[in-house]
Amino acid sequence: MIPFMLLELYLSLKVGENIGFLGSVVWIILSFLLGMTLLQRSSQTMMGNVNAMRQGKLDIKKFQNVSMAYLVAAVLLIIPGVLSDFLGLCALVYTVYLQFVVKITPEQKNNNFKNKGDDNVIDVEIIE
Q1: Among candidates 77, 53, 79, 80, which has minimal Cα distance to 67?
Q2: Position 118 in a domain
Q3: Which of 42, 95, 102, 112 has the fewest beta carbons closer than 10 A?
């Protein structure tokens, strides 16, 4: 954790030298606002992912990946710093990629949310 923080500090200072104080402040505010917007919309995004999973477009592993990447991206964008912003944008790009895969994947007819079994069988328990 300490090497990450030192690298974050070093990169932030180097970028701050190049873009100036005002540019650094604008960068921090914009990344914070983007991260907060992502967190505020996370419930809608999760419900969209659940619906995609119910339609068979998304399996449980991809659902976990896209949900975790989305939340990690939001948190990393809230944390001020160049390295955390870069990692947050990478996670966000991965999330967008998985959402694109969901959109182009056709619906699966057989998924785990349908009732399994034979409709012609009646299950009865006899109590004596």
Answers
A1: 53
A2: no
A3: 112
Mean pLDDT split into 10-residue runs, the chain, 128 residues: 91 92 93 95 90 85 90 94 94 89 73 60 76
Label residue 121 left, alpha or beta by phi (over 0 means left) and psi (-120 to 50 means alpha).
beta
- DSSP codes, 63-86: HHHHHHHHHHHHHHHHS-SHHHHH
Instruction: Name the residue range of residue 23's domain.
Output: 2-104
- From residue 40, alpha-carbon distances to 9, 21, 34, 75, 88 in Å are 28, 29, 10, 12, 16
| Count of the separate structural domains present in the chain | 1
- pLDDT of 6 reads 93
The encoded tokens of residue 20 equal 């100036």
